[in-house]
Amino acid sequence: MTIKVLVAEDQAAVRAALVMILRAEPDLEVVGQAADGEEAVRLALELRPDVVLMDVQMPRLDGVSATRQVVAAGAAQVLVLTTFDLDEYVYGALRAGAAGFLLKDLEADALVDGIRTVARGDGMLAPSVTRRLIGTFARPERRVGPEVRAAVAELTPREREVLACIGAGLSNGEIAGRLAMAEATTKTHVSRILAKLRLRSRVQAAILAQDLGLMI
Predict the structure, then answer these.
(1) CA 211 → CA 85, 97, 138, 214, distances in Å?
(2) What domain of life does the UniProt record list for this protein's source (predicted)?
């Protein structure tokens, strides 16, 4: 299956390099390019790519706001690009529903793998830097509203275990191994958790698990 990608990056040279890397992969298709946040939102709504590779700092509309609009419209999964690994802009993007984030200085293979990971719905939680970001900004003492706590209380014991594993940054395959169940069953549990808690992405579920102090 071909994965359609929209590249949103305001620096022309960086954008060209990203596009060149992606076009070298037979299963990736660059369907559009955006030089600012407003254009990124417009093209995402128009082209409906599988993944938007979104720079976090762009003119006219920043990457966080653009991510929020793209995710709210259900237009695509968003994978955020940033220069700094502990950037509060990135945390805002994750809260806005981004499926994960990558650093701009990563290797080409890691970029491609990240896009494939997000496209199949398995958020970018594996890299240690992502875990550090979540661990730094999403503390258990953060206030979780009563409605959210009530929704979490309605989860089954197994769903709570899966939610805790998501919070620890485990992939579906790792969760399946940890809890001794099929990976397809894990995916079903993850989908149900997101639906029950009204979350937009796996990363939001991970942040919530951290906020609640869930442990595995």
Answers:
(1) 20, 16, 6, 8
(2) Bacteria
Record the pTM. Answer: 0.73
Q: Give yes or no for a contact between 57 and 32, defined as CB atoms under 8 angstroms apart.
A: no
Domain that holds residue 101: 3-136
How many other C-beta atoms are found inside a 10 Å radius of the C-beta of residue 86? 12
Q: Quick one: 22 and 94 in the same domain?
A: yes
The number of distinct structural domains making up the chain is 2
Residue 131 has pLDDT above 60, yes or no: no
- Claim to verify: residue 47 and residue 101 sit in the same structural domain: yes
